[in-house]
Amino acid sequence: MTPTWFMAIPFALMPLIFHWMPVWRRNGIWFGVTVAQDYPMSQVGRATLRDFRVAVWLLGLAAVAIALLAPFAAWTFPIAMTLEIVGMFGAMVVARQRTLPHAVRPTATRSVSLLEPPETMPFGLAAPLVPLAILGAAGAYCYVSGIWREASAALVSGAVQTAVMLFMGFAILRHSPRARVAANAAATIQFRRVLVEYMIVAAWVMAALLAAMAIAPGLPPAIFGLLFPALAILYVWRLIRLGRGSGGGGDGTPDECWKLGMFYFNPEDPAIFVEQRFGIGYTLNWANRATWMFGGIMVALTLIAPLLMRYL
Amino acid sequence: MNDAAQIRIDLDASTPVNRQIVDQIRTLLVEGALPAGADLPSVRRLATDLGVHFATVADAYRTLAEEGWLEISHGRSARVLPRRAPVAGPDAGDVFRRRLRQLVAEARSQGVAAKEIAGELASLAKGVIA
């Protein structure tokens, strides 16, 4: 396989992900719009999905064709990438516009149980202690073996990335709604728990891999490319099933607060994180001041890594 | 979810949200679904779960605290206080009767059958006496 072919693979994978993304949703949401539960199976709903998929695959083919011209002109890769990303999100926005006339009013009823026990991090104290132990042990080994200078970059980067992921998981548990719509309560509670569990396990795997790279620098980087997708597929499958198990009635966020179906902007909502409407996971409430503070902390954590690597 | 201690608010209702929260928590307190010593969610947690402003929940908790039901500590969850039944004022009976009549009239005007209302009142009375 030539390097050009190898680099064209992500362009070919993108349409595959976007092909399935619209159906990775909770019941009653279609292209980011609250709809009747049976709407996606209607003729109009299916036509929107079909046209979206055709657009996505055509864009993917065009991007791969442009990317394959790389040996003749270096600028083809950024062009292919821009075309694919902008084009696919554009296709999503068009599909949303087609769905909006069929929107139904989400339920205005909110339910909360007052005696739910406080939520704790999945795996408890093990969540931060496991990566700390792994990276600490690897650091001690490197220090004793006299390879600290070569190993420090991987270990410090591992510590910072692990801290960022655990902090995000903790923040999602603290600052996202547990359940707003009674019909979805059980599925929503389980969904966010499984998602945070995934973030913790991913942080552990990352810590273990970076520790292994620090100790044995010859480790092939392809191992990252195999382990993380395998882990992601496992959890994404669980999360999709949980989303499909939810009842109708929407997700407790108003349709009009979703800009282009992707950006949540609701100054009345104190939540920092809300469930994404397109794709799997959580997104930010950009109208909340605390969101920007959270973003600042994340940026600060990311900036710490190069500083630490320089001085350690 | 613990359904016995669940509140359900309607953002489209004509009754303000803080009033809905106060009324429903008070009902749970009176019926014993929220026992003395129980910790309620913090203002932040409840506001996030309901998707309403912090001030709305804080106002509701403050009202219940003024009535002697809750103890609120800054940044912590509200705790249910043991509360003795207060001595009814001279007008309390009249106020109750007037409000009950208004409520029954409202329910009947919305089409709720008289038999259903009577059954509900009887069941409530049974609970109060027990």
Mean model confidence by pLDDT of chain B: 88
Briefly note the structural class of the backbone of chain B.
Answer: mainly alpha
**Overall spatial form of chain A:** globular
Helix content of chain B: 40-55%
Rounded mean pLDDT of chain A is 87
| Count of strand segments of chain A | 7
Estimated radius of gyration of chain A: 22 Å
Work out the number of β strands of chain B: 3
Gap between N and C termini of chain B: 27 Å
Rg estimate of chain B, integer Å:
16 Å
Characterize the largest beta sheet of chain A: strand count, sense, and whether it forms a barrel. Answer: 2 strands, antiparallel
**What is the straight-line distance between the termini of chain A?**
40 Å
The biggest beta sheet of chain B is recorded as:
2 strands, antiparallel
Relative strand content of chain B: 5-15%
Quick overview:
With 312 residues, chain A is mainly alpha-helical. Chain A has eight helices and seven strands. Chain A starts with a helix and ends with a helix.
Description of the molecule:
The complex is a heterodimer of chains A (312) and B (130). The radius of gyration of chain A is 22 Å and the shape is globular. In chain A, helix 1 packs antiparallel against helix 2. Helix content of chain A is 62%, strand content 6%. Chain A has 312 residues and is mostly helical. The model of chain B has no long low-confidence stretch (mean pLDDT 88). Chain B is globular and about 45 Å long. Chain B contains 5 helices and 3 strands; from the N terminus they run βαααββαα. Chain B has 130 residues and is mostly helical. Classes of the chains: A mainly alpha (312), B mainly alpha (130).
